[in-house]
Amino acid sequence: MLVVEDLYAGYGLSEVLVGTSLQVKPGSVVALIGANGAGKTTTMRAVSGLLRPARGRVLLDGAPVQGQAASRIARLGLAHAPEGRKVFGPLSVEDNLLLGAYRRLPRFFGFHGRAAADLEHVYELFPRLKERRRQAAGTLSGGEQQMLAIGRALMARPKVMLLDEPSMGLAPVIVQEVFRTIRRLKAEGMTMLLVEQFAKTALEVADYAYVMERGRIAIEGTPAELARDERVLAAYLG
Ligand code: ATP
Hints:
The chain is an alpha/beta fold. Helices cover 40% and strands 26% of the residues. It has a 6-stranded mixed sheet, sandwiched between helices. Strands 2-1-4-5 form a 4-stranded antiparallel sheet, with helices on one face. The mean pLDDT is 91. Bound molecules: adenosine-5'-triphosphate.
């Protein structure tokens, strides 16, 4: 489904990714963990086209997409819920969600009908968003904004979702709520690549995990395998 092969990317002269490779199989949840600055967010950005990789390949359903515009990669089925949520503050919750569907753009046939069905699905996952549908997104709490960012990504009916630190800045009880939703999406068959600081929480939901160190994958395995790995225990699960 999603294959990243020997990816190199950075900012100006600073190389951040130096040969990152990973795979996300259909219907699986894959966690990407690692210390601050290891390059997790940069990996997400290079995969979704927000950052142009210098070298390497990104395959979506077998087709190379590296170097293509983010909007095109999104249309091909990859949705990115970025770190820091990035909702459109002045717009209502519902308009933010509809913007997520806009990329699909079936302008001439039934945009409203299909978007309405997707809206209902998102509102069913996040009843809080439904209650606040007319409220400006910028006035939502952090947890609600995170739910909105995930909901907006879902509106594009993606094949693969990239979730970058959905727990960032949230109270523990809200983190649990966000992860309940991630579990539910997984049960519905959604394919997800999840970046998480809370390694333990991420490994509870993931089928497979990668540990990133200094721009490349240092350790990989199933959560059970990683939980037995001395290095992972010491650095991330201690
Ligand atoms: P964190 O968990 O702290 O978000 P991360 O693993 O996601 O860390 P990245 O955000 O990918 O790490 O950052 C990797 C490196 O790239 C860091 O050293 C960071 O300072 C650098 N970096 C990130 N964004 C930029 C940018 N826009 N310009 C220059 N350097 C950047």
